[in-house]
Amino acid sequence: MTKSWHINRRTLLKGLGAAIALPWLEAMTPLTALAGTTAKAAPRRMAFFYVPNGIHMPDWMPAAEGAGFEIPWTLEPLKPFQQDLMVLSGLTVDKARANGDGPGDHARAMSAFLTGCQARKTAGADIKAGVSVDQLAAQKVGQQTRFASLELGCDRGMLSGSCDSGYSCAYSANLSWKAESTPMPKEVDPRQVFERLFSNGTKNETDANRAKRDLYNRSILDFVSEDAASLKAKLGANDQRKLDEYLSSVREIEVRIAKTTQSGEQAPAGVTKPASMPKDYEQHIRLLTDLLVVAWQGDLTRIATFVYANEGSNRSYRFIDVPEGHHDLSHHGRDKTKQEKIRTINRFHMTQFAYFLEKIKDIKEDEGTLLDNSMILYGSGNGDGNRHNHDDLPILLVGKGGNTLKTGRHVKYSRNTPLCNLFVEMLDRMGVQTQSFGDSTGRLESLT
User: Fold this and answer.
1) Residue 294: what pLDDT?
2) For the chain, what is the total number of helices (H) and then of strands (E)?
């Protein structure tokens, strides 16, 4: 049957207080493309995943360069994605070094990671870092989506107080910076993220509609059911299946959020009970990453940051038999027992990252997958947590960037090659033309 109509990529399913974007559908392909002209390519996405306190590098770094390298122990959860990634060794964040400012490696590690700028050493309100790469991209291309960017994390951001040797807590708790003195706070509550992504109205209207759904045990999908049924009747079989799968994913997340945030306590009459945060760390991570998946799938945003924990975090990982604090263990002094526990924490984070990659690789989009059209950087601003070094950092780049990256390789760069050289290349692939960023000295070679 010849297609005779076209859905705009910005189409929303709407209902009372709800607005749900659509995934990529065949019906979004322009009619002129079906007639033989070039179709508009699927959008490219960019995300940055951050882990604190460095990595146990002997279990991270591949022994061989090039393609076909043997994947190290920490990266084993990524074995199914080996052909989709690059291990980039030798990259450096020079502005995370002291450079005359003394102690404070954790604060500088996070604040400089995406900015390439030296943080002003202050515990007061006069903080200063720089615009981060994600926010530069958001300024240039963010108007193409409902949300310019999405900042997610499992630890709340802070804007004041002293957290690291005279540095403001703002530096060690914020990865994304909109301006040199304006960090972008992370969204940590899955329920709040869900409402932000799928609600339509002011905050008061959103809260009221959520309360109504809770009272009558209704799903947000109930509010858009009429719109969804009308659209589905016009779609082909493949698009109907895609729409069903997408809406099922939204509903599954909604149910999981409800289950993990129920406190079991009733609030007094006239008092709004605050939403509870997930108590299980793994479930917290997976809820937030699933929300990022559907945000990308619905093209609600194309730019994101995700922080597993704030820099210097001393979180206990008792649930994987590591009861000690992460930061304390990172100062291992080459103690084999402590190093074993650090590598266990590293492997846990990598397993969660693999969960995210599996989700986006399973989503078909245009001629490829959502993963094919993405660039996802995973890393830390510290190398070895015991040394607090900021050279030869643990850096992964996953996804083909719309078939502009040659993946499946370990690429080794010369010592002190700026990480920001990579950001210049990533920005270029996002349609943001710039000759320099942060402390870059040029473009990063050998990516294609």
Assistant:
1) 97
2) 12, 18
How do residues 49-84 score in pLDDT, each as one tens digit? Answer: 999 999 999 999 999 999 999 999 999 999 999 999
Concatenated DSSP letters of 268-309:
PTT-PPPPPPPSSHHHHHHHHHHHHHHHHHTTS-SEEEEESS
**Averaged pLDDT for residues 245-258:** 94
Q: Which residues of 35-44 are buried (b: 16+ CB within 10 A; e: fewer)?
A: eeeeeeebbb
What gap in Å lies between CA 416 and CA 317, rounded to an integer? 33
Same domain, 338 and 436: yes
Side chain identity at residue 227, one-letter code: D
Domain extent, residue 356, equals 44-188+301-448
- For 368-407, the pLDDT digits (tens) are 999 999 999 999 999 999 999 999 999 999 999 999 999 9
| Listed residue (29, 33, 35, 37) closest to 7, CA to CA | 29
Residue at 98 is within a domain: yes
Using CB atoms within 10 A of its CB, is residue 133 exposed (0-12), middle (13-18) or buried (19+)?
A: buried
Residue 42, CB half-sphere, CA atoms under 13 Å: how many? 25
Q: Indicate the burial class of 139 (C-beta count within 10 angstroms; 0-12, 13-18, 19 or more).
A: middle
pLDDT score for 34: 46
Strands 85-92 and 409-418: parallel
Do 143 and 70 share a structural domain? Answer: yes
Using one digit for the tens of pLDDT, what is the confidence trace for 98-144?
Answer: 999 999 999 999 999 999 999 999 999 999 999 999 999 999 999 99
Q: How many Å apart are CA 412 and CA 87, to the nearest integer?
A: 8
Residue 289 counted as domain residue: no
d(CA 398, CA 375): 6
C-alpha 109, offset from chain centre: 18
Q: Quick one: 230 and 101 in the same domain?
A: no
Please give the torsion angle defined by the CA atoms of residues 133, 411, 53 and 417, in that order, rounded to the nearest 10 degrees: -60
**Total domains, the chain:** 2
The sign of the torsion formed by the CA atoms of 175, 178, 183, 189 equals: negative
For Cα atoms 246, 250, 372, give the angle at the middle one, nearest 5 degrees: 50
Torsion of CA 393, 398, 400, 401, to 10 degrees: -70
Q: Do 5 and 85 fall within a single domain?
A: no
Dihedral of alpha carbons 300, 405, 369, 305, sign: negative
In what helix (H) or strand (E) does residue 437 lie, and over which residues does it extend? none
Do 159 and 220 have their domain in common? no
Output the DSSP codes for 351-369: HHHHHHHHHHHTSEETTEE
Q: Is 26 helix (H, G, I), strand (E, B) or coil?
A: helix
